[in-house]
Amino acid sequence: xxxxxxNYPAKGRVILHLDMNAFYCSVHEAxxxxxxxxxxxxxxxxxxxxxxxxxxxxxxxxxxxxxxxxTVRQAMRICPGLIIxxxxxxxxxxxxxxxxxxxxxxxxxxxxxxxxxxYLDITGSKIFGSPLDIAETLQKRxxxxxxLPCSIGVAPNKxxxxxxxxxxxxxxxxxLRLRDVPQVLWDKPCDVLHGIGKKTADKLDRLRIRTIGQLxxxxxxxxxxxxxxxxxxxxxxxxxxxxxxxxADREQSKxxxxxxxxxxxxxxxxxxxxxxxxxxxxxxxxLRRQKLxxxxxxxxxxxxxxTTITRSSTLRSPTHSTDIIYHEACRLFDEHWPVNEPAxxxxxxxxxxxxxxxxxxxxxxxxxxxQPRKEALTKTMDVLRDKFGENAVLTAGMLxxxxxxxxxxxxxxxxxxxxxxx
Length: 422
What we know:
Elements: E1 15-20, H1 23-31, H2 33-36, E2 41-44, E3 54-57, H3 59-62, H4 72-78, E4 83-85, H5 89-104, E5 110-114, E6 117-121, H6 131-146, E7 150-155, H7 158-165, E8 173-175, H8 181-185, H9 198-206, H10 212-217, H11 220-227, H12 229-238, E9 256-266, H13 269-289, E10 292-302, E11 308-319, H14 322-336, E12 343-355, H15 371-388, H16 396-399, H17 405-414, E13 416-417
Helix pairs in contact: 5-6, 11-12, 13-14
């Protein structure tokens, strides 16, 4: 790994990747240090031993062998003293806004990636010192003002900055230069390269390309034949080359999403649809609250073995209608998920967002007369739920034919994991 050098870099772009360490657990430790500081903790969607899944865990828990994706029962067997915490997303958003507000003081070019990480282009921030001065100051201020640990990667591009921040956790500060790539990365397996997943790595392995160095030396035409333009990108990435810019406008063109880690494996399609209705309802509610419209619906499905797929489609017209979002999410689910295949996590994310007042909505030829009535009903339901709580108004679809569905519905709504909350 490269040495920390106060003179780095002499020229060119300088990108930081700021990554909070065990963010959810760290937030709870910062809020209640007397309960959680230095102790093995884990955030789980459900605290039930049989059904709960570990969403994230503290480094003290990781040192005992606890891992994300384990059931609560497995984790407790490995670490009997593990403290299980239910998620608090309002709290996580508060801390996310806090550390990002510090980061913005050093450059206007900040690109949030999720609730707990962002890229910073500090090429023009020399007034605050060298790149290492800025990175060290960020780490110290976030620790002092928010009591949160973070790792920072310093590099000439986003790809290497991301990989550098992953090299030393917690509280790591790593520089990765282009000239360091052969020494630092080329002996690593292909799936260590950010952007290459296990399936792609397996396909590369069948081509006898097993390390990043072999990928860097591979014939580009072969890669393009096998992977299309992605093959060309992989070869460039293996050399540490990345021309993507830090997009400061990403925050304005954000997505809104909810996922829920289920307290049991769902195999019945109708039950999956009911959960999708809950998720569509929550995302549409937030869309309307922020006076936004969405043009793209994306679903997320995760198997019990943590294999995850996402599928999306673009709507004919922007919408903030729960009904339209729900039906599109169900259509995607039915199209891409085999019958009776178990699902452990489901999610709905709305993308390509635009402000209501700036959006042209295409009315349905056969339904336009009903549109004002539907809008009025939706507004009334929103007002009631704002005043009396989310469960004040529930649709029949959320309940289904099973009387116990109301209980499960409330449980699922209480365990939704909201990642796109910038």
